[in-house]
Amino acid sequence: MATSSGDQGQQNCCFQKWMHLQEVDLSELLQALTLSENGDRDVRLSQLVQKMIKHFEEYIQQRNRLSRDDVSAYFAPAWCTSLENSMLWIAGCRPSSFIRLVYALCGSEIESRLTEFLQGARTGDLGELTSAQLSDINTLQSKTIKEEEQLSGVLAGLQEDIADQPFVVIARTSSGASESNGDVERALDEHAKGMASMLEDADQLRISTLKEMISILTPVQAVDFLVASKKLHLCMHAWGLKRDHRHGRE
Amino acid sequence: MATSSGDQGQQNCCFQKWMHLQEVDLSELLQALTLSENGDRDVRLSQLVQKMIKHFEEYIQQRNRLSRDDVSAYFAPAWCTSLENSMLWIAGCRPSSFIRLVYALCGSEIESRLTEFLQGARTGDLGELTSAQLSDINTLQSKTIKEEEQLSGVLAGLQEDIADQPFVVIARTSSGASESNGDVERALDEHAKGMASMLEDADQLRISTLKEMISILTPVQAVDFLVASKKLHLCMHAWGLKRDHRHGRE
To answer: Ranges for the DOG1 domain (chains A, B) (predicted)?
Structure first.
């Protein structure tokens, strides 16, 4: 296990860059939604969506690499707000929340469309999901929840392992908190390997769910979904900062 | 929602007092194990165990009261180490880990007893669980895991709610991170109420599991279990501090 004192700095920097990229990507996505509906619009939107997925994959790869040296830091990151940390599932968002978001967007667009229809106007495209798309999303939801539950079970097992050998015997025979113990270090390193591997699996599930969702949506719906997803993420961070500030955390 | 800037201080103080009490209680429990096996030993041990449960209940009551004003802080406490935070289930230990601990202690005592038996000596009493006790513990385990799963479902629901109304619509129409929005505050306060209520339920499950486990054990077994539990908790905190220090976190 690496012991660099700069771990925290690197982790924080990786996250800050990602949040900044989210803002840049959001601007680009919003800009793309203003493109006129000509022949190559869908191609251009698809390319943009693929670029966003690539950014997410690169971020995941980088944090997976960093987490191998210090996995615990990712389960309650110091660089996230308390509000965000209270919403974490295995160091990130729940993959099923992508699906919940699409349903929420679909519902809210149908609602606003009714008003616009009466006024002769129209907005986004997530209110126009076909029955085939809804069926695919429903299948994706069932599959995702099942895989989430499986990984939650792995997490539960790893958390319970702490109340078992070798930790229990080491703690029992421990004479004091400050003593140095090679057995503890080895046992914790071994346990951390399991945690890092589970984190990678959870990240893979997040990516694959996102990709599958996007493959179900039309290019303009996918952009609409990514816009809402990034806005929600950025807002959650901003709302959390405000609450942390109010409670004396900076 | 209260807005005292001293929230963080009060929460931290509550935790530090609890950790100190754990050390004091541990000394008292260890002292009690040296009592000679006369007629009133079991009565004295039982009284001590009840005192420890009362301390736990008082701590839970205090943090439940504090968490109503700032529940997010308890899901990744700044006063805990990253190692501890990565092991959290709804802002505390998994109730099922009490049972896992008893099984681990039982196993390790049977192992060490074999050596001692051959040497004509003996140690703790958790290696002497009767088949009736093992059956009761097994029933308690099934029941606890079921209740844990139920609460995990409540947590999943609350986490997914963030990707739904009203948050999605507020985020979507948000013009920037710094804007003030009464709708956000109300929605987050409402959501926090659900989180605080779930935290109280999880704490009640922790207490009831602990009490039921103790009611199954003999007084000396219960003391043995509490000693191991407190040692493990104190060691985890100490091990986590060491790792945080190594990774540049203080």
So the answer is: 8-246
Q: What is the pLDDT of residues B4-30, one digit of tens each?
A: 446 778 888 888 899 999 999 999 999
Nearest Cα to B186, choosing from B157, B201, B166?
B166
**B1 within domain boundaries:** no
Identity of the residue in B100, B167, B169 whose CB atom sits nearest the CB atom of A160: B100
Cα–Cα nearest to B236, from A174, A142, A96: A174
User: For A164, phi and psi rounded to 5 degrees?
Assistant: -135, -175
pLDDT means per 10 residues, chain A with 250 residues, are: 59 88 94 82 94 96 91 91 95 96 86 62 71 96 97 96 91 68 90 96 97 96 94 93 86
Nearest chain B residue (CA) to A103? B164
Does residue A129 belong to any structural domain of this protein? yes
Q: Over range B96-101, report the average pLDDT.
A: 96
Please give the tally of structural domains in chain A. 1
Contact between A205 and A151 under an 8 Å Cβ cutoff? The reply is yes
The one-letter amino acid code at B216 reads I
Is the residue at A200 inside a domain? yes
Residues of A in contact with B228 (CB under 8 A): 168, 171-172
ipTM: 0.89
Of A72, A101, A239, the CB nearest to B82: A72
Tokens standing for residue A145: 């929840």
Domain assignment of residue B2, yes or no = no
Closest Cβ opposite residue B243 in set A72, A228, A238: A72
Chain A residues touching residue B73 (CB < 8 angstroms):
82, 247, 249
Is B101 within 8 Å of A234 when comparing Cβ atoms?
A: no
The shortest C-alpha distance from A243 to chain B (Å) reads 9
Token pair for residue A182?
A: 């090679």
